[in-house]
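Hi everyone, sorry if this is the wrong subforum. Our group has a chain we'd like a structural model of before ordering constructs, and none of us has done structure prediction before. Sequence below.
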Amino acid sequence: MTLDASTAAALEQRLAVEQSTHRLPSVVAGIVRSGALVWSGAAGTTDARVDGPVPTADTQYRIGSISKTFVAVEVMRLRDAGLLDLADTIGAHLPEVPFGHVTIAQLLTHTSGMQAETNGDWWERTEGGDWASLLASGIGLRFTPGTAFHYSNVGYGVLGELVSRLRGVPWQDAVRTGILEPLGMSRTTTRPQAPSAPGLAVHPLADLVHVEPEHDAVSMAPAGQLWSTVQDLSRWAAFLGGRTGDVLAPETLTEMLHPVAVNDVPGTPWVGAHALGWQMWNVAGRRLAGHGGSMPGFLANLRIDLTSGDGVVLMANATSGLGTAAADLLTLFREREPDAPTPWHADSAQADTLDLVGPWFWGTYAFTLALEADGGLRLGEPGQGRGARFRREGDGWIGLEGYYRGEPLAVERDASGRPLRLVLASFVFTRTPYAPDADVPGGLDSSGWH
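Answer:
Right subforum, don't worry. Here is the predicted structure as tokens:
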């Protein structure tokens, strides 16, 4: 698409305000729509000097914990290849760990109870050690697995070793050949490659900067090692928006984007959660997915609006100070460039299931069944009570959300082919409340309605 000049100017102005107000040496960003980078911008200079290098969409920044999303996708690729199950305990694949009862799903969702950081020196600013040394340091659990959300960088170090063990190559090689190369992300690497921005800390009380160290985190690298560019990270945003190519099955991505663990802070309403490797946000009723990232000298953010598919990527070379620019840029873009709605068209294929629509009753609860544009069914209002949507699977349907997520729905017909009952997770729905011509579990009062 061709971006309106006034929209581009507004986005550039917002980015410039972020750089100036929050005293960031440099900040770069991009907007993604329909799988393409439709705008990119930059503000500041990479070394914080007035006449320093101006970054571009091809300048590398360290993306910190966004690295975890690549590890998570590779774990799901292993699952789809039949090499593991999410319910497997980590001990089944890494028998040497003392927390072998933790499951792979719990590690992905930060519900394993694993400690947040390493034992010993601050791992983000010191040279890393190998897997054996990480294990020997005494890493372990802080909480009972499955009982709480507790963000764990160490947990992703463990998942990186899992990938390495099952692929037979270092985790970064598995990610490069299985994900980065197929998606054309040639500028996403484990160490900086020119042109790249140096990691800087800005003095909180003076206009001075301090260079942060850069190193190989080795066994902790899966938690935050990768470097990337606006161009490359926009491809990852497009992937998250559904353009998975041959890297991941679409239904697996959908599975990854189901919120599992609420990031709960007592006394405040929750707006964020974690799914299988991805962060989730609920913003005024709109669901977004992505991940943030921070390492000494760098801040990053990637998020996609799951309804529209629009996304934003943003990176800065500062240890702290980033405000709300990522969310603001996406909102500004959506308001100025509203996405064209999908044109409505008649669908003759729905005639085959038209006899299902209309009223159905679960006991005395009334529901309306309607056909969806994608060939599925909508029972009641999704998100309200036990309303839900269903996708076709074989001769029946499977629930997509809420109480009936994953539960089967079957249609039973009489001798003439007329829909007589809906059987949903053992519950029976009939055309009228406790219809006498339907076999209602428990039978009917001989007096009928009286």
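For your construct planning: Residues 1-341 form a domain with the Beta-lactamase fold (CATH 3.40.710.10). DSSP finds nine helices and 20 strands in the chain.
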